[in-house]
Specification:
2 helices; 56 residues; mainly alpha
Length: 56
């Protein structure tokens, strides 16, 4: 939104963490974006995680 390189790097780091550490075998995104267990998955965690993956 701001065009700031620092903001873009931060958003990319968050998206990378979600994609590499937080998906289960069915590609569901959980509460713990940095990974770990237990990691609840439901429609709320999916919506939140997907918003972190979709660029603005």
């Amino acid at each position: 939104m701001t065009g700031s390189a620092a903001y873009r790097r931060y958003a990319q780091q968050q998206a990378d963490s979600i994609w590499t550490a937080d998906r289960d075998p069915l590609n569901r995104i959980g509460q713990r974006w940095a990974g770990g267990t237990p990691n609840q998955t439901d429609w709320r965690t999916q919506a939140s995680g997907l918003s972190g993956l979709i660029p603005s």
